[in-house]
Write a structure and sequence with these properties.
Helix content: 10-25%
CATH superfamily: Nucleoside Triphosphate Pyrophosphohydrolase
Number of strands: 10
CATH class: Alpha Beta
CATH architecture: Alpha-Beta Complex
CATH topology: Nucleoside Triphosphate Pyrophosphohydrolase
Number of helices: 2
Number of domains: 1
Distance between the termini: 37 Å
Length: about 130
């Protein structure tokens, strides 16, 4: 039995705030990204998810691995771990919520509690590095 969820996340910081997305019918905010489909590389999966959710295209040459974080998966049985591989990158286009995303906002560190458990770790790391 697989007890972890393999996800990719796109970290986009602006004015010491991180881009967050709220899916339709949800109350918890998430760092944009999603699960890889069979055979996809990190770049392929993240590019697809970012384009679907944010309406922008990542610039492949600008992709930079930020880190990997793991925590209890939000809304899943205890012991189900989400492993989030995070990247930063530049993009072309204009950020706009699309697909299953209801809205996008830039969060300061003080709004960390509105996000998922694994995102809390990322918020803490970004703040420790003085990025938030």
């Amino acid at each position: 039995m697989k007890n972890y969820i393999d996800k990719l996340a796109y970290i986009h910081i602006q004015d010491k705030k991180i881009l967050m997305s709220l899916s339709k019918e949800k109350t918890t905010w998430y760092i944009p990204g999603g699960k890889r489909e069979n055979g996809e590389s990190d770049l392929e999966a993240l590019s697809r998810e970012v384009e679907e959710e944010l309406s922008v295209r990542l610039i492949p040459e600008s992709l930079h691995k930020y880190g990997v974080f793991a925590a209890q998966a939000h809304g899943h049985p205890k012991g189900t771990i989400v492993r989030m591989t995070c990247y930063t990158a530049d993009f072309t286009g204009t950020l706009k919520a699309s697909s299953e995303i209801e809205k996008l906002e830039f969060f300061p560190f003080s709004r960390k509690s509105e996000s998922s458990f694994v995102d809390h770790l990322i918020f803490d790391d970004l703040q420790n590095k003085d990025l938030l």
